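Hi support team,

I'm filing this because I wasn't sure whether my run with copper (II) ion finished correctly. The job status page said complete, but I'd like someone to confirm that the output block is well-formed before I use it downstream. Pasting the exact inputs I used:
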Amino acid sequence: MLTVPGLTASARPVTHTVVMDGTRFEPQTLRVRPGDVVVWVNKDPFPHTVTAQSGAFGSKNIAPGKSWTYVPRKTGVFPYTCTLHPTMKATFRVE
Ligand SMILES: [Cu+2]
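And here is everything the job wrote out:
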């Protein structure tokens, strides 16, 4: 069980998963709350990145079969892409 400091009992963190498969992000739009845990899982046989266009967050290369975890702290709408495959686009909403 992951614990995230600074959260009240009424805002328990939820874990969300985004799959990278077939050179796309699924789901295309993810809505989460600050403090939630977001895991991107790479199911493709080549690396991907998760890179906010604003620079708010960004992974290094995520190898095949690996994942990257991020816990957003600030609200906002964050379009992101894979720097290796610029056609991969998705939106991450923290509300
Ligand atoms: Cu990619």
